[in-house]
Design a protein that fits this description.
By secondary structure, this protein is an alpha+beta fold. The chain has helices spanning 2-14, 27-30, 51-55, 58-63, 128-151, 154-176, 185-191, 194-205, 212-233, 240-249, and strands at residues 20-26, 40-46, 68-75, 79-85, 90-96, 108-111. It is built from ten helices and six strands; from the N terminus they run αβαβααββββαααααα. The protein is elongated.
Length: 251
């Protein structure tokens, strides 16, 4: 598989760099769930004082595998390279420090001679606040959808319903499969039981410019089924329960 070959070649070059303290995979390869269509999420752990020097070398390490069709350097939480090779393999290379490494998702350690990663936890659970945030975002995007629907903006309405499901998918997973809740939409097709997967498929089937009102009815019906459990999880919040209930009951 070309993903494994790319990881092997690039890692062999990375571990020759004394600035690199550890190399590991996250995403589908870190969970050993990858296939021939998977992207590569490759991480390098370096000391804070070495970040600047290491960043200058990233492109050469990637080119050790193959020619680049696309290359971009961005910064969101940490310095990141988005690379597409000439064989259309997509790789994201993240440069992290002990302070910036986020403990989400499972990872596969490729190189860690000093056991720098030994104290990091592997998990896909939502924290209590993350769960509350996803419930709030589910309700908020339903609110935004309703305004868009009343304006007659069908294109934007479909987009907003997709955002509803981005967040609601994590709410549902937190209920039924909390160990995979961080994965959200991408994990539904392999994780949910058939009855809930059928609900999801039907919602997306109707998430079009002509049928989005049926999709939102299906979402609200599903939320009604889950409402008692969700409300129980929201005990102690100030506004979340009332806001969600109002959005479920909107017509």
């Amino acid at each position: 598989m070309k993903q494994e070959e790319a990881v092997r070649v690039i890692t062999d070059h990375l571990i020759e760099d004394p600035l690199v303290k550890a190399v590991f995979l996250k995403g589908s390869m870190g969970r050993d769930e990858h296939d021939e269509n998977s992207d590569i999420d490759l991480y390098c752990l370096v000391d804070e004082g070495d970040v600047g020097a290491f960043l200058k070398k990233r492109k050469s390490y990637l080119e050790a595998y193959s020619s680049l069709l696309f290359y971009d350097e961005i910064f969101i939480i940490a310095p990141q390279v988005i690379a597409v090779f000439d064989n259309l393999l997509h790789l994201d290379l993240f440069t992290v420090t002990a302070e910036t490494l986020i403990e989400k998702d499972f990872f596969r350690v490729l190189y860690d001679p000093h056991r720098c990663l030994s104290h990091f936890n592997e998990q896909l659970l939502l924290s209590k606040q993350e769960f509350i945030d996803h419930v709030d975002d589910t309700a908020f995007f339903l609110f935004q959808y309703e305004k868009s629907r009343r304006r007659g903006n069908d294109i934007w309405s479909v987009h907003l319903l997709n955002q509803v499901m981005v967040h609601y998918s994590r709410v549902v997973l937190h209920h039924y499969h909390p160990e995979r809740a961080q994965l959200g939409l991408k994990a539904l097709h392999t994780t949910l039981k058939e009855v809930n997967l059928e609900k999801t498929n039907e919602i997306f089937q109707h998430m079009t410019i002509h049928e989005h009102e049926k999709a939102v009815r299906l979402i609200r019906n599903w939320l009604k089924e889950e409402e008692d459990w969700i409300r129980n999880q929201l005990q102690g919040t100030t506004y979340s329960n009332a806001f969600l209930k109002r959005m479920i009951e909107l017509n």
